[in-house]
Design goal:
single chain; about 350 residues; alpha/beta; binds 5'-O-[(R)-(carboxyoxy)(hydroxy)phosphoryl]adenosine; binds zinc ion
Length: about 350
């Protein structure tokens, strides 16, 4: 089964072809530079950029794969949660392609696709504890199977990625600043008393990172010299006399977020197990502190840790094509009336069960 995946839920335009669970080609275009100076994604600009880049990206994907639209059996598209205008661009493109060929349409939950992404190059073992950490979400799931995921906990305010990005913005680093903070943190021991580990003093599985963001802002207010005067990507070794202090803050922030995530994940393992593995996914799964804290937690419980490769952490078309391939394989399809789901709304499980031939 050949599945084309389309991802346009935020500021990455991603397309990929997955054949029987194997990635055969992908194309990705990021809008990071476009939004960097605004300190966050500007929705109107994002959707216009998806509209501009999708057709040439699609042509280049087909050219390099040697496939044609007639070869495609399934078209999978991220249907949310995400920026509504951006989602609509990808979904309209997907529906247009479906009309022009015989492929079946599958709307994919972007969050579930993140969690399934590591399955592209390693075996996923179910039931798994899913830790989804991205720019917009911080969720814990019991992953019963590739198509059944039960939400156990979520952030009540900011997501982990948002805490990274807003802290980076306060330091005058360009958006998205999570990766920059992580790079500056590497090789620096954290000061574990500098920042709080937020919202652990309870017995639930939810998160709250807005207080941590405020603690970072207060720290910068009390130490205004650590904020760069002009916005730009800092170069280690050339950051001036306050470099050590800046890197210590970054390392402490990494530790505070990573150890908060692993503490709640450990709680979920105890309360909702047994699990065979722990899957950590989403943009923040690229964070070195998150990867090492989760590794330590899994070792303690004797659980297998499944991490996506760094290129599969942030948004991409391969994870959508892979999830679509799995869903279609189980007979889950959508009609052309498939609706986009904006951020903040739950994505319904509204598939129509069909064989692939019936879905055409
Ligand atoms: O999953 P993703 O690409 O987009 C959403 O669906 O939100 O995640 C983007 C988020 C951003 O907040 C970005 O700063 C963060 O992932 N991120 C990181 C790292 N790499 C990306 N955060 C911390 N450390 C990293 N190495
Ligand atoms: Zn994402």
């Amino acid at each position: 089964m050949l599945c084309l995946g389309i991802e346009t839920s935020c500021d990455e335009t991603g397309l990929a072809l997955v054949e029987d669970g194997r990635l055969i080609a992908q194309s990705l275009s990021t809008q990071e530079d476009l939004h960097a100076l605004f300190g966050g994604v500007v929705p109107e600009l994002a959707s216009r950029e998806h509209l501009r880049i999708l057709p040439p990206l699609y042509s280049s994907l087909m050219d390099k794969s040697g496939k044609t639209l007639a070869d495609v059996d399934v078209i999978a598209v991220a249907r949310g949660p995400g920026l509504l205008g951006s989602l609509l661009v990808g979904m309209s493109f997907a529906k247009g392609l479906c009309l022009a060929c015989k492929a079946g349409l599958v709307g994919v939950n972007h969050l579930n696709a993140h969690l399934l992404a590591p399955g592209l190059d390693q075996e996923l073992e179910f039931p798994a504890l899913g830790v989804l950490v991205s720019g917009g979400h911080t969720n814990l799931y019991r992953m019963v199977s590739p198509v059944r995921m039960e939400l156990l906990g979520k952030t009540l305010d900011d997501a982990a990625g948002e805490a990274f990005d807003k802290s980076a913005k306060a330091l005058n680093f360009p958006y998205p600043g999570g990766r920059i903070i992580d790079e500056l943190a590497c090789g620096v021991a954290p000061d574990k008393s500098l920042l709080p580990r937020p919202y652990l003093d309870n017995d639930n599985l939810d998160f709250s990172f807005s207080g941590l963001k405020t603690a970072v802002l207060n720290h910068i207010r009390s130490n205004p010299e650590i904020r760069s005067e002009s916005m730009g990507i800092p170069a280690i070794g050339h950051m001036g006399e306050h470099e050590d202090k800046i890197r210590l803050l970054c390392s402490s922030l990494n530790w505070s977020i990573a150890s908060t995530l692993s503490a709640k994940a450990a709680r979920a393992v105890k309360s909702h197990g047994p699990f065979k593995s722990v899957v950590v996914a989403g943009g923040v799964a690229a964070n070195s502190g998150v990867r090492s804290e989760m590794a330590a937690m899994c070792e303690k419980f004797g659980l297998k840790l499944t991490l996506p490769g760094l290129n599969l952490c942030t948004d991409n078309g391969a994870m959508i094509a892979y999830a679509g391939n799995l869903l279609a394989g189980e007979g889950y399809f959508h009609g052309l009336d498939l609706e986009a789901v904006p951020r903040g709304r739950a994505v319904p499980f509204d598939y129509v069960r069909r064989t692939r031939d019936e879905s055409r």
